[in-house]
Structures are given as structure tokens and as C-alpha cells.
């Protein structure tokens, strides 16, 4: 059974930091690209960051320089370090696994995803 379990969300003031984690199980972890996407109420799903099979990193322009995606293949754990948070970063954040990696941030495709963790940034 595939499981992706996010943790680490919460409420912070603008300029603060949060670290999201995702524990994955039930599928061949290293065969997939791993990613984070977010969705705010009334808005479309937005790709945030990906880490590809070869370790290449990609970020949305809106988070470049503030967010860092990383993973521990041995522990099957994906992490998103979020610094200098802004109110517009407020959303539900989801961990995702995707077979297709190309241009993922601009065109997210999700094979597996978690239930999400809420991030709220106040001004």
C-alpha cells in the first residue's frame, strides 16, 4: 500500500521558517521523482519544487531562493525547508511522487500524493 505522510506544517509570521517532511512507503521510492505542490483555497494547484532521479532540483519562481527541497533515499524521506515565508505561501502543501519528471513544476503530474499539511503565514 502506497503511503505518503506529510508533517511539519503550522502557523508562522511572515519572515519565519518551517520545515516539512514526507515519509514515503509502499512503492519503489528511487524510481520516482519526488515533489512538493501546494493549493490555496480557490486557487489552482501549484508546483513548488521537485527533486529528480539524478538529484536535479527545480523550483517555482515564487519560491526560488527561499525554499530548499532535499531527500534521504535510504530513509525514504522528502523534506522542504521553507525560509522567509510570505503570506502568499499560505496553502495546503502536499508531497507527491511522479513517474514523469520533465517540466514538473510548471506542469505537475501526480502518481501518488499525501493528504497534505497546512501552512499558514500571517502578516
What does this molecule look like?
This protein has 123 residues and is mainly beta. It has no helices and eleven strands. Strand 7 and strand 8 form a beta hairpin. The strands form two sheets. Strands 2, 4, 5, 6, 9, 10 and 11 form a seven-stranded mixed β-sheet that branches. It has a four-stranded antiparallel β-sheet with strand order 1-3-8-7, with no helix packed on it. The mean pLDDT is 95. It has strands at residues 3-7, 10-13, 18-25, 33-39, 46-51, 57-59, 67-72, 77-82, 91-98, 112-113, 117-122. It is globular, with a radius of gyration of 13 Å.
- By secondary-structure content and strand pairing, the structural class works out as mainly beta
Runs in which pLDDT lies below 50 for 5 or more consecutive residues are: none
In N-to-C order, the SSE pattern is EEEEEEEEEEE
Number of strands: 11
Entry summary:
The chain is built from no helices and eleven strands. It is mainly β.
Output the keywords:
single chain; about 120 residues; seven-stranded mixed β-sheet; four-stranded antiparallel β-sheet; 11 strands; globular
Spell out the blueprint of helices and strands:
Elements (H helix, E strand, L loop, with lengths): L2 E5 L2 E4 L4 E8 L7 E7 L6 E6 L5 E3 L7 E6 L4 E6 L8 E8 L13 E2 L3 E6 L1
Parallel strand pairs: 2-11
Antiparallel strand pairs: 1-3, 3-8, 4-5, 4-9, 5-6, 7-8, 9-10, 9-11
Amino acid at each position: 500500500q502506497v503511503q505518503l505522510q506529510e508533517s511539519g506544517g503550522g502557523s508562522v509570521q511572515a519572515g519565519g521558517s518551517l520545515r516539512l517532511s514526507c515519509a514515503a512507503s509502499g512503492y519503489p521510492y528511487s524510481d520516482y521523482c519526488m515533489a512538493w505542490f501546494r493549493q490555496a483555497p480557490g486557487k489552482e494547484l501549484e508546483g513548488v519544487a521537485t527533486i529528480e532521479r539524478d538529484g536535479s532540483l527545480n523550483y517555482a519562481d515564487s519560491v526560488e531562493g527561499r525554499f530548499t527541497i532535499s531527500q534521504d533515499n535510504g530513509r525514504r524521506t522528502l523534506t522542504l525547508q521553507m525560509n522567509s515565508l510570505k503570506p502568499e505561501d499560505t496553502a495546503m502543501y502536499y508531497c507527491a511522487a511522479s513517474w514523469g519528471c520533465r517540466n514538473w513544476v510548471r506542469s505537475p503530474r501526480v502518481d501518488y500524493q499525501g493528504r497534505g499539511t497546512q501552512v499558514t503565514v500571517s502578516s
